[in-house]
Amino acid sequence: MRTILSILMLFCTMILSAQEIQENILENKTYLERMAYFKANPLTNGQIIFLGNSLTQGGKWNEYFPNQKPVNRGIAGDNTLGMLNRLNEIIIAKPKKVFLMAGINDISLSRSNEKIMIGIKSIIYQIETGSPYTKIYVQSLLPINNNKNVYQRMLNKEWQIEQLNKELKAFCEKENITFINIYPAFLSEDRTLDARYTTDGLHLNDNGYTVWVDQIRKYVEE
């Protein structure tokens, strides 16, 4: 269990990014629409929740796992700061499990891995403190494929994704948190996101989601 002091120390650092939250997330149309949808469709206690960005939002989790009926709490364009802003809804519901994927949109905003890790740690510590019986699963970031030249802000960011995944793995091992490394399953021979699994070099097609589901099935169903 993490101490309240640890959380407060992390949030003191996050205050430095308060302006980023306002400019990039809280006034975003998609973010606001999804937040309104969440308010109209509140969580109930003990559910399995997928928390993340557009990759998470694009998944049909309750169809992939009809017996567990996971709830989709992904928002396209969201980053660690936006997830922190909306985390209270999840904590109050005391979920059985939370599957977290975060960081790719922070990278697109040229945030450092140090700052991204602070955000992810803050998300985890808040959940652990507010809902101590929730099992947290941290999923790795996925690779990208810049051959399609769709996302200019992600050019030459492959190294940062790989490094962030290493840092996430090390943190989870240290803190006894389950880390699910789905990154290798999506790699092509040239170590980019396999074109068979993507629509645009970043987002997944149906084949991509099939791979993702296969990688996490035992954790969802356990």
From TrEMBL:
Keyword flag Cell inner membrane: no
SGNH hydrolase-type esterase domain residues: 50-210
Pfam families: Lipase_GDSL_2 (PF13472)
Presence of keyword Ribonucleoprotein: no
Protein name: SGNH hydrolase-type esterase domain-containing protein
Organism of this sequence: uncultured Dysgonomonas sp
GO molecular function, one term: phosphatidylcholine lysophospholipase activity
SUPFAM superfamilies: SGNH hydrolase
Coiled-coil parts of chain: 147-174
UniProt xrefs under PANTHER family: SGNH HYDROLASE-TYPE ESTERASE DOMAIN-CONTAINING PROTEIN, THIOESTERASE 1/PROTEASE 1/LYSOPHOSPHOLIPASE L1
Keywords, ordered alphabetically: Coiled coil, Signal
Stored InterPro entries: Ester_Hydrolysis_Enzymes, SGNH_hydro, SGNH_hydro_sf
Extent of the signal sequence: 1-18
